[in-house]
Amino acid sequence: MRVHFVKTRLVWYIISLLIIVPGLVSLVWQGLNLGIDFTGGTLLELEYKQVPAIEQVRAALKEKGLGNAGIQAAEGNRILIRTVALAEKDRDEVLKAIREKTGDFNLRREDKVGPVIGKELLRNALLALGIAIVLMIIYISWRFEFWSGLSAIAALLHDVLVVIGVFSLLQLEVDSAFVAAILTIIGYSINDTIVIFDRIRENLLKRRKDQEVGDVINSSIYQTFGRTINTVLTVVFVLVAMLIFGGETIYNFVLAMLIGVLSGTYSSICTASPLWFDLRRFAKKA
Questions:
Q1: Which positions ≥6 away from 43 have C-beta within 8 Å?
Q2: Residues 206, 202: Cα–Cα separation, whole Å
Q3: H or E element: which one contains 80?
Q4: Fewer CB within 10 A of the end CB, N or C, for the chain?
């Protein structure tokens, strides 16, 4: 039995709202769990005679609830550790735990560091994203029509809100890798939507006079359905493997990508095209 995505669009709209609204409520109520990339913290520089494995250092930090700390090998048998701001007592306990796991070292430096992603950088990133969205609307409007551009951007925002909402609800840590995941999701989602819109445009040019626009849209979705599913499955297989075997360092990044890719596929099929149908219909009635 073939689902008519346009005729059942109200169902898809409700499903989207049931996912997005709790996330928005969570954003207002408890916000995001911002990591040290946003908040700043403590920088520790350790010097060893023989550098231990990064996994040993991370295991020690994890015992102290600092599993998401940034760890970087540096020149001269040194390791840089970036954590949340630590009080003197907490710092001593962390250093003791690391020493027990990795052996003796010299504490070369301890600094209080500011956020990697400051307010100005975040403002510039949002400005760049806003400009990109405007340019996408202009291009899609020229390539297809204005309502196509609006519905494509709405589907894009849908995917971003889904990912951010899930991370807010679960209070998963948000860092610079999360920002990279959001930007990647935006690129992936818009690409999938454009493929479907392109097929809709082609089929509308060949439409019979007795054929409803909704039926053309539905046929176009099914004509690109195999490509869409095959593409998303190849990406999902890789992401699931990385989620299982990639380790804690990239876990949140991969999870954000996985949620975004699945949401992007859903929105391209169930949200963008039906929304374009409604916007186009309302515009003609207005």
A1: 80, 81, 82, 109, 110, 111, 112, 113
A2: 7
A3: strand 78-83
A4: N
